[in-house]
Amino acid sequence: MNPKLKRLIGGLLFILFLAFYVVVVIAVAYGILPGKSQGFQLLFMAIAGTIWVLPGAMIIKWLAK
Predict the structure, then answer these.
(1) Taking Cα atoms as reference points, which of 14, 19, 7 lies closest to residue 57?
(2) Per-10-residue mean pLDDT for the chain, 65 residues long?
(3) 5: exposed, middle or buried (C-beta count within 10 Å: 0-12, 13-18, 19+)?
């Protein structure tokens, strides 16, 4: 595959994944966080804020090949 095309596809895939992930996390947060303690909200946000790294790293790893 042409490296420029691969970078374009990978970049678009990464942006689309992040957009989808953000929408899902916001929807889940609005569903479960109201009325929960601040500690639980902080834990949820910390976990949700780091989970995206794993799929993002796989996309970047694919781009590096």
Answers:
(1) 14
(2) 87 93 94 92 94 90 84
(3) exposed
Q: What is the C-alpha to C-alpha distance for residues 54 and 64, in angstroms, rounded to an integer? A: 15
> What whole-number distance in Å separates Cα of residue 33 and Cα of residue 52?
19
Q: Which domain range does residue 24 map to?
A: 3-64
Tokens coding 48 = 């949700």
pTM for the full predicted model: 0.80
Structure tokens at 58: 């796989």
Q: Domain total for the chain?
A: 1
Amino acid present at 59: I
**Total count of residues recorded for the chain:** 65
Q: Which residue has the tokens 């794993």?
A: 54
**Nearest C-alpha neighbor of 20 from the set 45, 56, 46:** 56
